[in-house]
Amino acid sequence: MEPDMTHNQSGSLVLPMILLTIALIIWAVFQSVQLYKERQNLKLSFDNQEQLIVNGKKMRTQLDAIAAGTKRLADQGNANAQLIVQQLAKNGISINPNQQAAALK
């Protein structure tokens, strides 16, 4: 009778091992799909941010050009431009029109 018990015990381990293997495969596939979706979402977010950065740089260039033009007007004696430059200086913002000209080239 003992040989039958040994056979039943080894046979009873096959089914749980098969189920465990299937569960691990399903988990690995699920994780792979989730990681792929997350990668796609991150790529989309990065692409969207890249466009915002480009737009921000364009705006910064335009603002620097306006500030440099205002500084040149102030240097030429325009009272309103001088007032704007003084207010900017009080706020800690300095304008260097020569640096702007170099950046545009």
Provide the residue-averaged pLDDT. Answer: 86
Assess the beta-strand content as a share of residues. Answer: under 5%
- Euclidean distance between termini CA atoms: 96 Å
Please state the structural category.
mainly alpha
Q: Give the quaternary arrangement of the chains.
A: single chain
Shape: rod-shaped
Number of separate structural domains? 1
Treating each run of at least 4 consecutive H or I residues as one helix, how many helices? 3
Sequence stretches where pLDDT stays below 50 over 5 or more residues: none
Task: Supply Rg.
Answer: 35 Å
- Largest sheet features: none
- Bin the helical content: over 70%
What is the number of E strands? 0
Q: What are the secondary-structure elements, in order, as H or E?
A: HHH
Keywords: Membrane, Transmembrane, Transmembrane helix
What does this protein structure show overall?
- By secondary structure, this protein is an all-alpha fold.
- The chain has one domain.
- It has 3 helices and no strands.
- The longest helix is centred in the middle third of the chain and has 74 residues.
- It is rod-shaped, with a radius of gyration of 35 Å.
- The protein starts with a helix and ends with a helix.
Identify the notable features of this structure and list them briefly:
membrane, transmembrane helix, 105 residues, transmembrane, 3 helices, mainly alpha
Quick structural gist:
The chain is about 90% helix and about 0% strand. It has about 100 residues and is mainly α.
